[in-house]
Amino acid sequence: MSDLHFADDKTASRFTLHRGDDLVSVLDYRDDGRTIALTRAFTIPTFRGHGYAAIVTERAVDAIDRAGDREVIPVCWYVGEWFDAHPERAGILHQRPAS
């Protein structure tokens, strides 16, 4: 999968994953300066079944973690399930204060 290109399209508030010239998957987000809510993972229907949503999610989490200045709120069900499958990445999740 060396022909994959990941990018953060800040103007559109989305992470993108391209295979060659084709957009294959996106991960939309909302950034409030403290947290990044990952709101929707979507793979273009003709490219489904190849794990692209997992790749764009993993690369987005890696990028957010490297920046070190935001926590993640997994709004999208897919992102929530991705974190369930990768408990070692839970340290980046936003913890709501107890009420």
TrEMBL record:
Q: What is this protein called?
A: N-acetyltransferase domain-containing protein
What PROSITE patterns has UniProt attached to this entry? GNAT_YJDJ
The residues the entry assigns to the signal sequence are none
The record's section on InterPro entries has: Acyl_CoA_acyltransferase, GNAT_YJDJ
Task: Name the Pfam families on file.
Answer: Acetyltransf_CG (PF14542)
**What residue stretches are annotated with the N-acetyltransferase domain?**
7-94
